[in-house]
Each structure stands twice: as C-alpha cells, then as structure tokens.
Amino acid sequence: MTDTILILHILAGFTALAMAGAALGTRKGSRWHRRAGNIYVLSMLAVTLTTFALMAIRPNLFLFVIGIFSFYLVFTGWRAAMLRDGKPRIADHLVGGAMALTGVAMLGLGALGLVGDGGAQPVILLVFGSIGLTLALSDWRDWRAGPITGKARIARHLSRMLAGTIATVTAAVVVNLGFLPALVTWLGPTALITPLIVWWNARVMRGAGRNV
Asked: Where are the beta strands (DSSP E) in 92-160?
C-alpha cells in the first residue's frame, strides 16, 4: 500500500512540475495555458492527498504542515483565476482559515525547535509559516476592502501560482539534491524565485489602481 501511494505521489509531483513549466511557457489566457494550469492544480491536489495518506501511515508533522502550505498557494492562485467577480466563497474562507491556523502552528513549532536545537527544520517552519500566515491574513484584508478584480486579480493569480511552483520545485530539489545543506534545498527556490514574483506582480499592476 505504501509503495503504491508513493508511486502515485511521485507521478503527481512529476506531472505538476511539467505542467507548471507548460503554463509558464504558454500565452496567458490561452486554451493551452488554462489546460496546463488546471492539470497542474489537479496534480498538486493529488500530491497533497497522497502526502496526507503517507502521513497517516508514517506520521510526520513537518511534512504535513508543509503540504497544507503548498496546497494553499496553488488553491488560492487557481481561485483567483476562477473568481472573476473577485468575491470569496465559503471554500475560500475555509482554506484561508486552515492556512492561518497552520501558519500559527508552524511558527510555534519553529520557535520550539529553535529552543531545542532542532537543526534546519525550525528555520524552514518559521520562514514558510510567516509567509503562509501573512498571505492568509492579507486575503481577508483584501476581501474586506471589496472585490478583487481587474489587474489586481490577475496579479494575485500569477503570484500565487508562481509561489505554488516554488513549492513544486522545492520538492524536486529536496528529493534530488539531498547532498546539499537542508536550508539550501528547502529555502533556495524561494530565495531565487520570489524576486521574479515581485517583479512580475509590479509589472502587472503598473499604472493600475486596485480595481480595473
């Protein structure tokens, strides 16, 4: 059973990585971009579900919360593309709440790990926990301000999907470049790709107000 789930997990991760590249390489809004994006989201859902299944067999709280964080990024990016009216639904609030609680848990676990000299994991939890909690709180702040439409919606879609791509790339790096220090494999993709997200987001939003 474990081997079967692991194989499905690996296949889903490989598909997600390929579809992330396909989505980035096709014209935004085109049929092929949408198809690649949808397959990417489904693949990441499969990655998340198989991760949880593996955790049920071999509990690992660290990987469990990382799984929630990764899926949150992809889900909110996908929802930004789907919700053209910019208004959140119950599912969006539920996922946001789950990420907020997970972010708090990650920060708590990270702080405890630092006190107990837990190696690289506490730092990783603190970094990803801070990002996840900040994004979840910013979602609610933006929703309270009004519908997220126009270029603001597109920017959210791009930034969250790129962030989800970081999670996909990170998983590949952690598995295949295990000879590198843990902080490099876990945080390296974030450090390298985040500036691209900031640049791309600024480019999309240039000359636009919050709503268009």
From this structure: none
18 vs 195: CA distance, rounded Å: 22
Check pLDDT > 90 for residue 89. Answer: yes
Q: Between 31-57 and 2-25, two packed helices, what is the crossing angle to 10 degrees?
A: 160
pLDDT digit string (tens) for 37-66?
A: 999 999 999 999 998 999 888 888 998 999
Separation of alpha carbons 201 and 106, rounded Å: 27
Q: Which of 120, 103, 43 is nearest to 68 (CA)?
A: 103
Q: Could you give the CA distance from residue 122 to residue 98 in angstroms, rounded to a whole number?
A: 20
Q: What is the pTM of this model?
A: 0.87
The answer to whether 45 and 71 have CB atoms below 8 angstroms apart is: yes
